[in-house]
Design brief:
Length: 337
């Protein structure tokens, strides 16, 4: 049995750390199998040595986070616990300035911290991971921050116009109206960084572009921050076309979730191919995010975990054995139409 003691910054910080009716500390007790109590103005943690060490580190991290932000949610607690249990490092990261007054964006998990650090240090960054890990959000935040601090002159946000498993038919309206549903996630992320009028002004000045991937062909983009979202739905040819648009002084971020591929059967994902083909090339970073980096509703982590386990008889997350076979390339001798 091991015991450690943790100093408390103030009675107010203790209330924030423990949560309403001690719900935060109860979660830590249950998840890490330790005893947590307060005596003489200090937090006492007792239990197995390894578990006490992890619980102490988690409480210190949460106390620091609460001191900086003035609040602590159950989702923050669950993320910190997941990171500690998976052996992850503490998450810290430089704040990214955006156009909304008084607002900064910073990574909230260890994996997100590695992602932001990679974007700062490399010209091309690949980020893969499940839904809700902040791939798009942090990439857009980094692009907007680079634009605000005059590191680049243009931001280009694009994604392939691939429907997620269902046909929407012919959409009404002009070209912009037709492609808007595909680009909506990028526009939503952008709206978190700047107000509507600023977005419209920068789009009119051609400083910000939000376009389908097909519109990238034939271009060379200098001093630009270029983001490709939903990259798992690119073909190998499309990925090569996109990466070779890079001009002098530009940066590229490619993000996607390899468990959510909506390409036709027997079509290899350009993202999977690039992760294998470009691994080890100097100047290119590859960051793998996991369910412990999910920063949406706490239930999203559990949903992702359930799908990662796969369905009955399926080894591919989210696909039945029949669907898995459809997405495999045909073997020599196979008959197909």
């Amino acid at each position: 049995m091991t015991e450690t003691k943790l100093s408390v910054l103030s009675s107010e910080s203790l209330v924030t750390l423990f949560g309403v009716c001690d719900q935060h500390v109860r979660k830590i007790r249950e998840a890490m199998e330790v005893s947590v109590s307060v005596q003489d103005g200090r937090i006492h943690i007792e239990g197995n040595a390894d578990k006490v060490a992890r619980a102490t580190e988690t409480l210190e991290q949460l106390q620091s986070y609460a001191h900086r932000h003035g609040r602590l949610t159950m989702e923050d607690v669950e993320r910190a616990i997941a990171t500690a249990l998976e052996g992850g490092e503490k998450f810290h990261g430089p704040p990214m300035e955006v156009f909304k007054a008084g607002r900064t964006v910073r990574p909230r998990t260890a994996g997100q911290g590695r992602f932001v650090d990679a974007m700062l240090k490399h010209d091309i960054v690949f980020s893969s991971g499940p839904a809700g890990t902040g791939k798009t959000y942090l990439a857009v935040a980094r692009a907007v921050s680079a634009l605000k601090t005059d590191q680049i002159r243009k931001v280009v946000l694009c994604r392939p116009a691939v429907e997620a498993g269902e046909s929407l038919g012919f959409l009404p309206g002009d070209l912009q109206a037709k492609i808007n549903p595909y680009l909506r996630p990028l526009l939503d992320a952008l709206a978190e960084m700047m107000d509507y009028d600023t977005i419209q002004r920068l789009k009119e000045q051609d400083i910000i572009e939000v376009i389908p991937l097909a519109y990238m062909r034939g271009r060379t983009l200098n001093e630009a921050f270029i983001i490709l979202d939903e990259a798992q739905n690119t073909t190998i040819a499309q990925m090569k076309m996109f990466l070779t648009r890079m001009g002098c002084g530009s940066k590229i971020v490619v993000s996607g979730d390899t468990s959510q591929i909506d390409l036709p059967p027997h079509t290899r994902s350009g993202l999977i191919d690039a992760l294998e083909r470009l691994s080890g090339i100097e100047g290119i970073a590859m960051v793998k995010l996991s369910r412990s980096d999910i920063v949406r509703h706490a239930l999203v982590q559990r949903i992702v975990s359930a799908y990662e386990r796969g369905g009955p008889g399926s080894s591919v997350p989210g696909r039945s054995p029949k669907e898995k076979k459809r997405h495999e390339p045909p073997r020599r001798g196979d008959k197909h139409g």
